[in-house]
């Protein structure tokens, strides 16, 4: 790839109900709805050849959300797709989103009190490159795996001149 890479602009997620998706990201992450498009008026070739979607699907709505100071989240609601279950983390194509928060324990308590399905934790990595990483996974109402994490410093920082993105960081 040539040219300068600035960073991750957005992550697109297909949800079964866009209003539910918006409400979830607003409640959990304080997301702000920046804009939405409504239905797309495109043909089957566009769906298959430009989006890699089923030619028989349609886009009911698309919305961009701003979540804090990082990468934006783009939600799609499609119609015409039969298998709508999210992939497990262990499956090819499985994924999760991680949001950095100031206190993973307080965030986990707030999410749990709000009825969000939490997996075990919060957890802390004690050794290795992720030493100091506090995290917990949880599920969106449609099954997507998400994570919140907090940390002051990670173990890899003692052995590498490179740094992962951090909230509030001005230099990589």
UniProtKB/TrEMBL annotation:
Keyword Metal-binding listed: yes
InterPro entries xref list: Glyas_Bleomycin-R_OHBP_Dase, Glyas_Fos-R_dOase_dom, MMCE/EMCE_epimerase, VOC_core
Origin superkingdom: Bacteria
A Pfam family recorded for this sequence: Glyoxalase
PROSITE patterns tied to this protein: VOC
Record keywords: Metal-binding
Species in which this protein is naturally found: Rhizobium calliandrae
Residue ranges occupied by any VOC domain in the UniProt entry: 7-151
Name recorded for this polypeptide: VOC family protein
